[in-house]
Design a protein that fits this description.
The chain is built from 19 helices and nine strands. By secondary structure, it is an alpha/beta fold. It is globular, with a radius of gyration of 22 Å.
Length: 399
């Protein structure tokens, strides 16, 4: 009974809060695409575009759109067009978990037991018995280069097959518009982009690669709080993500390779229930004019939920993981479960603090109330949220 009640409440969260804003975004997409190019196709970028495409198909089933495979690591691999670039990329990424994980998937390389992520510069003047990432990976630079060229060729074939003669429009949550820049370079012509929000870094892409428009913030600062999507981007990413691992690369036959999806059953259930409510709202929005007012007020409703959740609402998100195993091995949650509260970070500070049991004794809470506001201007958003939700772990990890 408790599980069924929680599932119902999560569907209500999807229906009443995230459903309206995502439907409104898709309605905005529908109007914006009409003024870009007549013969165009929307490319909903993996993995955040998976649910958005389903909503759009529900609202506009006759319009052309595709789910487009892309990821940071797949873009990096496609850009390794020379041996020199391979060596430079491996050296610059020596401390990045993405290459260790992706190389294991792409090349089926069996990493030695004594493998670590020591940067090559750290070895200078010190006798080390461990093999660094660079030492290991550079031995396979010829193979990496060979497979990178194959991947780029297959990526181009895959993209051309999807878009045909149509003008491609990238659809994503947004931020830096890096997929748009990559696709423009790959196709050697302009590509447009329609986003929920974009950061200042996207201005260069707009100048070099094609038109950019944004639904809830155009070229805003990464720390901008006026855009609800930007301010709570980690919550949106965790909810929108597709039920699959990240795309890694295309093999010689043009088949996509994916990272293994390691999310917990709790995370899957939370996302599935919220998605169910969102899609129910999208279906209802196609046949009920009474939903229009709810859609128009969607940003205010979501902002209210995320900035001032009730304890019950915040606790519904306990255990929802924020997974990006290509970039980090940290345990990240939207709201940490109580059993892992002091061993993990949370990326929705208002939700975590509201969900916490106030009877838990934490001597770091008083210390955090002093140091967190001081450190906020100097930290990126993700690091600031780590400090705010687990001050003790953040400081000891840095030490």
């Amino acid at each position: 009974m408790k599980d069924r009640e929680k599932a119902k409440q999560l569907r209500n969260i999807g229906y009443n809060y995230f459903g309206p804003i995502l439907v409104d975004f898709c309605r905005w997409l529908h109007s914006e695409r009409k003024i870009i190019e007549y013969n165009n196709i929307l490319l909903f970028v993996a993995r955040d575009g998976h649910l958005l495409k389903r909503i759009y198909n529900t609202l506009y089933p006759e319009e052309s759109c595709e789910y487009f495979l892309a990821s940071r690591i797949s873009r990096h691999f496609s850009e390794l067009t020379s041996i020199e670039k391979v060596a430079a990329e491996l050296r610059s990424s020596a401390s990045d978990y993405s290459y260790r994980n992706a190389l294991k998937i792409w090349y089926d390389l069996k990493l030695p037991l004594f493998f670590n992520l020591q940067h090559p510069k750290e070895k200078e003047g010190h006798a080390r018995h461990h093999l660094s990432f660079y030492d290991f990976a550079i031995q396979h630079s010829d193979l990496i280069f060979e497979k990178a060229l194959i991947h780029r060729k297959k990526y181009l074939e895959y993209t051309q097959r999807i878009i045909g003669s149509k003008h491609p429009i990238i659809v994503d949550i947004g931020y830096k518009a890096s997929t748009q820049a990559f696709l423009s370079d790959l196709l050697e012509h302009d590509v447009s982009g329609l986003y929920m929000v974009t950061h200042k870094e996207a201005m260069r892409v707009c100048k070099d690669s094609g038109l950019i428009r944004s639904y809830d913030g155009l070229f805003v600062s990464a720390k901008d709080q006026k855009s609800v999507v930007n301010n709570y981007r980690f919550v949106f990413e965790a909810i929108l993500t597709a039920p699959s691992g990240a795309f890694v690369a295309f093999d010689q036959l043009g088949q996509p390779l994916f990272e293994r999806d390691v999310r917990s059953q709790i995370t899957r259930q939370i996302i599935s229930n919220i998605h169910s409510g969102i899609l129910d709202f999208a279906n209802d929005a196609t046949c009920s004019k009474r939903k229009i007012e709810q859609i128009e007020n969607s940003k205010c409703k979501v902002k209210c939920l995320l900035s001032s959740p009730t304890k019950t609402q915040a606790q519904l998100f306990e255990g929802l993981e924020f997974c990006d195993s290509f970039k980090t091995t940290e345990q990240l949650y939207i709201v940490s479960p109580q059993s892992k509260r002091f061993d993990s970070f949370s990326l929705w500070a208002e939700g975590q603090l509201r969900a916490d049991d106030i009877n838990l004794w934490d001597p770091w809470r008083a210390f955090g109330s002093v140091c967190v506001p001081i450190a906020k201007p100097f930290l990126p958003k993700g690091q600031y949220l780590r400090l705010k939700t687990n001050c003790r772990k953040f400081i000891f990890d840095k030490l």
